[in-house]
Write a structure and sequence with these properties.
The protein is mainly alpha-helical. The protein has two domains: 165 residues; 138 residues. Helix content is 56%, strand content 5%. The protein has 15 helices and four strands. α9 packs antiparallel against α14. The longest helix has 29 residues. The radius of gyration is 23 Å and the shape is elongated.
Length: 320
């Protein structure tokens, strides 16, 4: 087998997803076609899940662990029982080095991210479910950052279509009632932390309380931005990176940058209000409110009271 093409391949920058796809197409796929040709018509192949490369955000700093030529082979439970052992042997026999990249260095917490696996194991890892959620409460129980990981990355091929069916179901985003429940929760948190407690803490000279209030506001605000953009919020390390990709909130990116760098600047109260005003404008466009009120707490309560799902109505407004 030919590993890489030339010195130019080794010098050219390449993202982890592109590296994985080339490794599969040039090394993995020919090996499976030669040694187990009946597998690929039954398999989904790609790279998704944990790791910055699965979001397309890998760089020189992130390549010191759990990075290297690799991919995932997802099989149904039946096909894994039938082909799994042989498929794993083929995967392990593939050369570790490719395009000048060394073999994948796996940390203990990075075990089982790649390789051959039942697709139910993959979905359960991130959602706790072997398939799509059955109801609103199932959706609400899954942490947003797990959903972001579950549907990131890239599927190189899926001839059976089963993995893609589930993936596309999650990519459609939350049912609308669940989305509105979460939006209402974020609105109340943003109002309490940013619009109310942050300026009061500054006036009292309580810098620690002000810092924490601003942190709470930004977490809720960035989650709000994702919910209004129909995108799952990744975990804290990548929240702001993902936020910068949301065109809907391009007008407030700069304000958020300033708040992060100058958390005790009294001018942040105006920046907080500008963010909340933008939220209300987007709510209006999305049919979530007919009020111009920019203090988000009453807006959140109004949205919460309009939720029809009995399962969601029985929960605290803060749940979600």
């Amino acid at each position: 087998m030919k590993i890489g093409n030339s010195a130019e391949d080794q010098k050219a920058p390449i993202r982890g997803l592109d590296l994985a796809e080339r490794y599969y197409q040039e090394i993995g796929r020919p090996a499976f076609m030669q040694k187990l040709p009946e597998l690929l018509p039954r398999a989904a192949v790609g790279l998704a899940g944990e790791g910055s490369e699965c979001f397309g955000w890998d760089d020189a700093f992130s390549r010191d662990h759990d990075f290297g030529p690799s991919f995932c082979v997802w099989l149904t439970e039946e096909d894994y029982a039938k082909y799994g052992e042989k498929a794993e042997d083929i995967y392990r026999s593939l050369p570790g080095e490719f395009l000048g990249f060394p073999p994948r260095r796996v940390m203990p917490q990075g075990m089982d991210r790649v390789g051959v696996m039942p697709m139910t194991r993959y979905w359960k890892k991130f959602t706790g479910l072997p398939d799509l959620p059955h109801g609103d409460l199932d959706w609400l129980r899954i942490p947003e950052h797990f959903l972001a990981q579950a549907v990131n990355g890239r599927v190189f091929e899926d001839n059976l279509g089963e993995f893609t069916r589930i993936r596309e179901g999650y990519l459609k985003f939350y049912p609308e009632e669940v989305r509105r429940k979460k939006i209402a929760a974020r609105a109340v948190t943003m109002a309490q932390s940013g619009q109310y407690n942050y300026p009061r803490s500054l006036r009292r000279g309580e810098s620690g309380a002000a810092f924490l209030a601003l942190s709470e506001f930004l977490r809720a605000a960035i989650s709000m931005a994702h919910l209004l953009s129909y995108r799952y919020t990744p975990y804290y390390k990548w929240m702001f990176r993902s936020f910068r990709t949301l065109p809907l909130f391009a007008d407030v990116w700069a304000d958020v940058e300033v708040m992060i760098r100058q958390p005790l600047d009294p001018e942040n109260t105006g920046r907080i209000e500008a963010f909340c005003e933008e939220v209300v404008r987007i709510w209006s466009r999305q049919g979530l409110t007919d009020s111009r009120e920019t203090f988000l707490e009453p807006q959140g309560w109004q949205l919460y009271r309009r939720i029809a799902s009995p399962a969601l109505k029985d929960l605290s407004i803060f749940t979600g």
